[in-house]
Amino acid sequence: MDVYGLLGNPVGHSLSPPMHEAGYEALGIDARYVTFEPEPAELGRAIDGAEALGISGLNVTIPFKQDVLDHVDVDEMASRIGAVNTIDFTGEMVTGHNTDAAGARRAFERHDVALDGENAVVVGAGGAGRAISFMLADAGASVAIANRTESSAHELASVVPGATGHGLDSLEALLADASVLVNATCVGMEEDATPVPAEALHGDLAVLDAVYRPLETRLLRDAAAQGATTIDGAWMLLYQGVEAFERWTGRDAPVDAMNEALRTAL
């Protein structure tokens, strides 16, 4: 039996176990997905122990996404993003990857949203904003990053090809010429709030909200009211897991089964 899992602290809230185990069951793979909560000072020993025990792969969540960089061989995308969310033990080396960017890209693809040549606005300059900004630039979009702390937006824009940094007060002007909007902040998770004024939205936008609890955020309700294409955060969560599943198993993931399990658990 193969063993996969999640490394974080805490991990009790995670939706990854039911999502991945639904995938194993659908494909008849003899595997389990378990969670681990090492103390931060024990992260290196935890990774070494996982390799020694024959664990095939680990997802990584807070607070370890950056610290893991010191313990694995990091691929190019994870290095650019500055964070690892997937560890692969199946090769000759223990490698670190970041599937958040691919997860966002596949969420757009699922909804037939083209990115090449489009103007995209990313709200937020944290970890999710960083991954999504690199993905959009790599896909050929012109990226504008808006953040409450404007200096953080400029800092991120300085390393994302062709990107520009802005404060939130520029959103209305930026969105007037944009066809893609991503909320990469946690605004909308704890309260019915939105980082984007409703009057700045329009029907030519495709709007991805990385928040997945609740699925229908105020931003997505406002966007839908304007006739925009809306993509809830569970799609990005699903596809970052699908990317890890396919990397570890070498097989196409049963996306529909994993999606059903994820949305049932939400």
From TrEMBL:
Protein name in the entry: Shikimate dehydrogenase (NADP(+))
CDD domains from the UniProt entry: NAD_bind_Shikimate_DH
Similarity comment: Belongs to the shikimate dehydrogenase family.
Record function comment: Involved in the biosynthesis of the chorismate, which leads to the biosynthesis of aromatic amino acids. Catalyzes the reversible NADPH linked reduction of 3-dehydroshikimate (DHSA) to yield shikimate (SA).
Annotated active site: K65
Gene: aroE
Domain Quinate/shikimate 5-dehydrogenase/glutamyl-tRNA reductase: from-to ranges: 114-185
InterPro entries, per database record: Aminoacid_DH-like_N_sf, NAD(P)-bd_dom_sf, SDH_C, Shikimate_DH, Shikimate_DH-bd_N, Shikimate_DH_fam, Shikm_DH/Glu-tRNA_Rdtase
Residue ranges constituting the Shikimate dehydrogenase substrate binding N-terminal domain according to the UniProt record: 6-87
Residues engaged in binding NADP(+): E76, G124, A125, G126, G127, A128, A210, G233
Keyword set, alphabetical order: Amino-acid biosynthesis, Aromatic amino acid biosynthesis, NADP, Oxidoreductase
